[in-house]
Amino acid sequence: MHSCSDYGEMRRARWMMSGRGGRGRGWRGGPFGRHRGGPFGGRGSRMFDSGALRLVVLGLIAEEPRHGYDIIKALESRFQGAYSPSPGAIYPMLQMMEEADLVVSRSEGNKKLYTVTDEGRAYLEENRAELDRINAQLEEASGDMQGVALGDAIRDLRKALYRKVRGGELNAEQAKRAVDILNKARDDLDQL
């Protein structure tokens, strides 16, 4: 029979050896991967480098215990609605953090409340400079928008388009005009 601390050490060792957290196959600079210049991943449409997002999420949980939905909303509010991570990005990340003993969860109805562990706090302290740098970049990026709710406008446009398409309100000519409008909007945005 193993003690609780032995069990935690075994889980951590398995996680490290799996390549997700150790120097074995798939090593990417610790449990959160490499940070390539901060939160902005630079790969296609990704807002965050995955390692930076994980560090920011752990930092949010350290501020106060949170549900996955609360984390998504906290990140969305930092960007005035212009960015919101998908549940498919956040929930597996929380599971991974729990397996690494950086957070623990407890059930509250059909939700889980995540709390940072002592090991998670130690990890944050080791990476405090990196987290501070990432948070400064996030503040600068969101501060430039000065409260403009860009995300709300994007959602409203998407809803209007989906209403037309789902309602069967567009004939072929109207659909072509809609495509022209969207292409012009894209081109105008590219020119900003």
Descriptive account of the structure:
With 192 residues, the chain is mainly alpha-helical. Helices cover 59% and strands 6% of the residues. It is built from eight helices and two strands, in the order H-H-H-H-E-E-H-H-H-H. It has helices at residues 4-17, 50-63, 68-78, 87-99, 118-126, 128-143, 150-166, 172-190; strands at residues 103-108, 111-116. The protein has a two-stranded antiparallel ribbon. Strand 1 (103-108) and strand 2 form a beta hairpin.
Count of alpha/pi helices: 8
Q: Which strand order do you get reading across the main beta sheet?
A: 1-2
Percent in strands:
5-15%
Mean pLDDT: 75
What's the CATH class label of the largest domain?
Mainly Alpha
Q: From the alpha-carbon coordinates, what is the Rg to the nearest angstrom?
A: 21 Å
Largest sheet composition: 2 strands, antiparallel
Structural class category: mainly alpha
In one word, what is the shape?
elongated
Total strand count, please? 2
Point out poorly predicted stretches.
1-5, 12-46
Per the CATH scheme, the topology name of the largest domain is: Arc Repressor Mutant, subunit A
Order of helices and strands: HHHHEEHHHH
CATH architecture label name of the largest domain: Orthogonal Bundle
**Termini distance?**
64 Å
